[in-house]
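Protein modeling request. Please complete all fields; requests missing the sequence field cannot be processed.
Requester role: graduate student
Desired output: 3D structure, token encoding
Chains: 1
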Amino acid sequence: MNFKNAEKIRKKFNLKKDLFTILSFLILLIGLVFFIFNIYLSEYNPCENFFLFLGIAVIILSIIIFVLGIEVGGDKYIRLLIYIEKRAIKEIYPKYSKFNNKYFNIELFDNNLILDKPSFYSFEKSFEGKIDSILFYYSAFHFQYSQVVINKESSNISSSSIDGNIIIFDLDNSDFFKNCTVNKPILYIRLAKKIDEKDIKLGNELLQKVEYESSEFNEIFDCFCNDKLFAFKVISPKVIIELLKLNKFFKDKKIPANSYNSFSIIFNENKVFIFLKIHPSIFQLRIEKEFDEVQYARAKKEFELPLDFYKALDLNKYIL
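Delivered output (320 residues):
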């Protein structure tokens, strides 16, 4: 990919933003001078507030200029980022298309014990594609939670947010699930919790805890299934090794101290749901750094996640 044009747009955007920031700072200083001048004059004429109102007007002007500095060139910069994302997706999955989020709704998370229902949510960067002959759907999500905390003295609203990604693999054409001991085999894999649970309920299905020969895998992951034979067919020794590698990849990523990366996987009949809680800064293009191969590889890695999990879960064995 040629980064010359992308780098020109980035530099121009940063230059305009910096100029507007400096200008707004200088105007802010002028506003503060008017404030100080008004205090000095008020000693002689308490009714004179002309410079006070002028100072307020100038400070408001400085804020407007600062905001304009962020907006100037922003549309072109956002279009650039969208172009880079599309280019990355097309390189990895030559046959892909945008779609209308029909597969992504809040019930997916609520029904699968993944996250509580948020106050506000959005899905973005959604697309569908194929790896070999298996169809998949991908989207990033943002969940915002608001909660009213009431105590004896007052009530406050606390808020928090979670960002992540969801991948759905459609194995509709596979006969792999037909020879199971139950009609609807379900396997749930998550990072291990401190509480030792022997079983959990997923929808109307009771899933029993399953342990594998790898003590390292059992220590890092909790696995629950309603068909042990199915559980061992899906999670082979090869899959165990690959999932441990993926977990290390997410764990080693540098993220803000108050965040964490994790993922959970659900095999539900002939579909695979992968829920990733990932801080968005892991993949974001950094505007303060030069657009080059390193930056591009960073952004591209987000869209390689379906391929990473496809390989880790050995999903090509489900192809007829």
